[in-house]
Amino acid sequence: MSKITTLSEFILLKQQDFPYATGELTSILQDITIASKIVNRDVNRAGLVDILGAQGNENVQGEQQQKLDVMADEAFIRAFKSGGEVCGIASEEHEDFVAFDSEKSKNGKYVVLFDPLDGSSNIDVNVSIGTIFSIYRRVSPIGTVATKEDFLQKGTKQVAAGYVIFGSSTMLVYTTGKGVNGFTLDPSIGEFCLSHPDIKTPETGRLYALNEGNLNRCDPGLKDYAEYCRQDDPITGRPYSGRYIGSLVADFHRNLLKGGIYIYPTTKNHPTGRLRLLYECNPLAFIVEQAGGLATDGHTRIMDIQPTELHQRCGYYIGSKQMVEKAMSCLTGGF
Ligand code: AHG
Ligand code: MN
Ligand code: MN
Asked: How many CA atoms lie within 13 A of 295 on its CB side?
């Protein structure tokens, strides 16, 4: 039997990649691992106990919060608060960032931004959902409370990012800027085990994921790209297969492994895009670039966008390099 590497062992091992590492980032990643196991337990029990369905509240984006959205949010906040390495968090489920005020947390060097449950409209129908996280070094002085500037940093400043997918199995995929690694939860031992070392995404693929129902409401160049995807061309393997789960994490994960493109454009209904730059777009952009892919808003590299507000949205084109480049060229009339 070959040796199993658990996520905890791997995180510790990788600390050596950073010569001056003091273990704080390692602790945050360990906190995320524990919170993920808690959320995994709750997600798995969702059909058994009465935790399914709407909470009855709307979040800051005017969307209905699900009970599991709230539970996941609380599980991650608890883990970061008690860990002490994080001075504050920003979550899709909170209007403003949350600064932790204990003495230990004020000395924390990092902030974490996260989407506690992504694809939550899929919970009630047992379709894959996920959690997305992004870690930055604070810019405010250590020993003080976190400020908004700590959270409004470009994606290029991320020190780590990842996601957990609650699918047919539960996986955690993350990067600290030195490649991407994936771990599958073995429920019999309760550990995430290294299953996808050094993930590289194919340069091109045969899957395109977008909500085709929106096509009449977006840039005509995107209609051209969808048409390109549907055309017959044995050399480039077209027509591509259309795949859209409606859970970004799940659509992204599939494309990362198989090769493909995911698009959520700006539309008439969502003139600045639907997905959030800080909680969804930046972390997955960091991962895809580390795996050899590309993420843009159709024109600009996602990680170069300077955020001006916490819940900022943007158009999103992410996946295999050649496919994203082709979609971008269609937006500028290059069909
Ligand atoms: P969230 O559940 O965190 O609000 O995110 C939902 C997002 C994303 O996961 C998904 O790809 C997209 O919204 C689906 O939107 P449409 O239903 O408009 O296609
Ligand atoms: Mn989301
Ligand atoms: Mn969410």
From this structure: 28
Structural domain span for residue 150: 7-196
CA–CA dist 109, 24 (Å, integer):
8
User: Could you report the per-residue pLDDT of 18-41, keeping only the tens digit for each?
Assistant: 777 789 999 999 999 999 999 999
How far CA 8 is from CA of 15, 82, 277, in Å, comes to 11, 18, 29
CA of 120 to the centre of ligand 2 (A): 8
Q: Does 15 reside within a domain?
A: yes
Q: What is the pTM of this model?
A: 0.95
Q: Give residue 238's identity as a one-letter amino acid code.
A: R
- C-alpha 66 to ligand 2 mean position (Å): 12
Domain stops at, among 196, 216, 248: 196
247 and 130 in a common domain: no
Report the atom number in ligand 1 closest to the C-alpha of 251.
11
225/43 Cα distance (integer angstroms)? 36
Q: Is residue 285 a contact partner of residue 157, using CB atoms and an 8 Å limit?
A: no
